[in-house]
Amino acid sequence: MIIVPIKENESIDKALKKFKKKFERTGVVRELRRRQSFEKPSVSRRQEIIRARYINELKRENTL
Fold first, then answer.
1. Dist. CA 23–CA 21, nearest whole Å
2. Looking at beta carbons, which pairs linking 34-42 to residues 24 or more positions away fall under 8 Å?
3. Residues 20-54: pLDDT tens digits?
4. How far apart are CA 46 and CA 21, in angstroms?
5. Fewest CB within a 10 Å sphere: which of 16, 25, 53, 63?
6. Model confidence at 2: pLDDT above 90
7. Torsion of CA 42, 46, 47, 48, to 10 degrees
8. pTM tops 0.85
């Protein structure tokens, strides 16, 4: 459960903004979207390898 402390004379808009930010950080929506469709383990592994190669290539370009 997300708890957002509200100070005196603080507007509801600010409190709502704090709540939205905390909710986004928890990653609930991202997790729900990920679970909506099944992805085979081999496909997810392949995606991880491709992502790792891309990041490695970016790091190599920055060091040169």
1. 5
2. none
3. 999 999 999 999 998 999 999 999 999 999 999 99
4. 32
5. 63
6. no
7. 100
8. no
